[in-house]
Design goal:
The structure is a homodimer. Chain A is mainly alpha-helical. Chain A contains six helices and two strands; from the N terminus they run αααββααα. A two-stranded antiparallel sheet of chain A has the order 1-2. Bound molecules: iron/sulfur cluster (2 copies). Chain A binds a DNA duplex through α3.
DNA sequence: TCTATTATAGATATAATAACTCTTTTATAG
DNA sequence: CTATAAAAGAGTTATTATATCTATAATAGA
């Protein structure tokens, strides 16, 4: 019952994009070194973010990654969902009773968490946390 | 990023105690049959609940499990914590900066979820959901 | 005390998932 | 054409979840 390391890497990577320069193309090597993981692994995570539209990539020489226009409104939840997939904290419900309050409680709890994660966007970090990473 | 099956079993077991008879001693076999898992496995989960003080157990003949006095105020969060341990959705933070907003966001999101889970107690299910399980 | 019953503990096996690596392919600037 | 960098795919290892089996401890009742 915790977020994967991949999600961690994704969050930190996105934040790093913000605190450096959202416009500039950035290769995967410097990022990988910062977090001490292999470039190919991080690349795989970044590809997930690309597919979710949370970063832009450019192949070939002088290529790299950068934030897309509109990056300011990307939320924590967006990033988490991009990496973890559509998570539902509560699964394995056999007799699928829609009235069941157990499910309702769990779903509502998850919603509360997601609400919070949705409200926090990269814009919040543009000024406030340049020293974080 | 989801709750374990064990947590599921624990929640359903607790609910089952409520909808049947909170006072009566109940062996592990009937419960295990209901959820189609082995008695020893469920027993292990129940033992965790016992250690957390969420159920009472009695060894020996005519023994079994039952809810303790004050069971009405046991919350979903109590049960989850008893089985999952002290979970923190966000770990693997290396340079432990207490000012870090990333951590703050994640912790606050988790808090929101836990608040909700804390407010839902077994008492809510005493009348409302006798047909759930 | 003896026996049947029931929880507890420990060791172990299996399965599933996460975490990571290596290799190959595709794309592009110069 | 070539150097560079991302994307894709296959495969490996590590970790954790899930579950079972066996043995031990406790207790009520005969
Ligand atoms: S009690 Fe609710 S959550 Fe559990 S199996 Fe039934 S419908 Fe699903
Ligand atoms: S940026 Fe924040 S969450 Fe990430 S390692 Fe640093 S202190 Fe921890």
């Amino acid at each position: 019952m915790k977020f994967s390391k991949a999600t961690n890497y994704a969050l930190h990577t996105m934040l790093y994009f913000v605190v450096t320069d959202p416009k500039q193309q950035l290769g995967v090597q410097p990022l990988a070194e910062k977090m001490e993981i292999s470039p190919t692994y991080l690349s795989k995570i970044l590809t997930q973010l690309v597919k979710a539209g949370l970063v832009e990539s450019a192949s070939g020489a002088k290529g790299g990654y950068r934030l897309p226009r509109g990056w300011e409104s990307i939320s924590f939840l967006d990033i988490i969902h991009a990496v973890e997939g559509p998570v539902s904290l509560f699964d394995g419900c056999l007799n699928d009773n829609p009235e069941c309050m157990v499910k309702q409680v769990m779903v509502s709890a998850e919603d509360k968490m997601e609400e919070e994660l949705k409200q926090r966007t990269l814009a919040d970090f543009a000024e406030s946390a340049p020293a974080a990473l």
